[in-house]
Write a structure and sequence with these properties.
Elements: H1 8-18, E1 23-27, H2 33-38, E2 48-53, H3 57-62, H4 68-74, H5 79-92, E3 97-103, E4 117-123, E5 128-134, H6 139-159
């Protein structure tokens, strides 16, 4: 199920294509929803290379290279883990940018984080950014809002002249 982004997915693809850049995603709480949204547009293969769905904590380490000591210290739901996931997917899929989502869709807390806690990481050629969100609602509301916020953060990174 892709979501209606109001054209934000198209804007992101156009900005990536204009600079000859590529994108990969690492998803946990969204379960592939960001990748599905990014590939819903015809021609998305020009910029989108793929993703890693690492729902289980141990897969964040084995598939994305998130350091085990970081996961042990912070849990899977943290800004540091989101940043490491974004950098890991960018490196493993050999893309210009990596975007990662980790958090708690609910209904139960995870690693001490309440449902609606979301971290989005973007790793680019020079640096990265992380955004923390608190989203109210049910699982679907949280997941859809997280995808929209990930696209917004990526757009903001791509709008930064230093990201060119």
């Amino acid at each position: 199920m892709a979501i209606d982004t109001g054209g934000l997915d198209v804007v992101v693809h156009e900005k990536l294509a204009a600079r000859g850049a590529t994108l990969s995603v690492a998803e946990s709480l969204t379960g592939g929803l960001l990748g599905a949204t990014l590939t819903d547009m015809p021609g998305s293969s020009r910029t989108f290379r793929g993703g890693i769905l690492a729902y289980a904590t141990d897969l964040k380490e084995s598939l994305l290279g998130v350091p085990g000591p970081l996961l042990a210290a912070e849990g899977a739901v943290s800004a540091q883990v989101a940043a490491a996931m974004a950098a890991g997917v960018r490196d493993r899929l050999a893309t210009t940018y990596g975007v990662a989502l980790t958090g708690v869709a609910g209904p139960d807390p995870q690693d001490g984080a309440a449902p609606g806690t979301v971290y989005i990481g973007v790793a680019g050629p020079d640096d990265g950014q992380v955004r923390e969100l608190r989203i109210d609602g049910d699982r679907e509301t949280i997941r859809v809002a997280a995808v929209r916020a990930a696209l917004e953060l990526l757009r903001d990174v791509l709008d930064d002249p230093a990201a060119a």
